[in-house]
Amino acid sequence: MNPYRPTSIAIDFDRTFTSDVDMWRTMIRMFTQRGHKVYCVTGRTETPYSRAELYNTFGPRTFSLLTRCVFCNHLPKREITKQLGIHIDIWIDDLPEGVGGLTPAQLARIDGTVNVCETLPIFTPKVVHPESYWPPILEMLPQ
């Protein structure tokens, strides 16, 4: 029995789920076994090819565990899920800026150029550059 409240978890597809497919399949199974709802929320445009690629990559078993797949057509994910009446408690995304708070043009300018350290489910954080935020930690890393 899960002593915690059920939560809604959104996982991005490209560069998040696809970064380690077997691990995320296991995590999705664990989340759903504990009573949580798991959504795939992707920035992709919905096409027959995209739907088939998601289904094939998740695999039939894991795909059947998802509450829903949401295609955001390159719009802010939080805005699209809200319009659909879906409240997400936890966002798992390699590019948290895509969750919300930026225009598509702003998002396109920073995609792949920043390192984001953390995102919290209650807000979309500002971009964090580790080299300016944690200089003492970076000095300890091997060069």
Could you please describe the fold and organization of this structure?
By secondary structure, this protein is of the alpha/beta class. It has one domain: Rossmann fold (3-Layer(aba) Sandwich). Helix content is 38%, strand content 12%. The protein contains seven helices and four strands. The protein has a four-stranded parallel sheet with strand order 3-2-1-4. About 18% of the residues have low confidence.
Features of this protein?
38% helix; single chain; Rossmann fold; 143 residues; 12% strand; alpha/beta; four-stranded parallel sheet; 4 strands
Distance between the termini: 47 Å
- Note the overall shape: globular
Q: Write down the domain tally.
A: 1
Percent helix range: 25-40%
Strand arrangement in the largest pleated sheet:
3-2-1-4
Strand fraction equals 5-15%
Number of helices: 7
Which runs of at least 5 residues are low in confidence (pLDDT < 50)? 113-138
The CATH class is: Alpha Beta
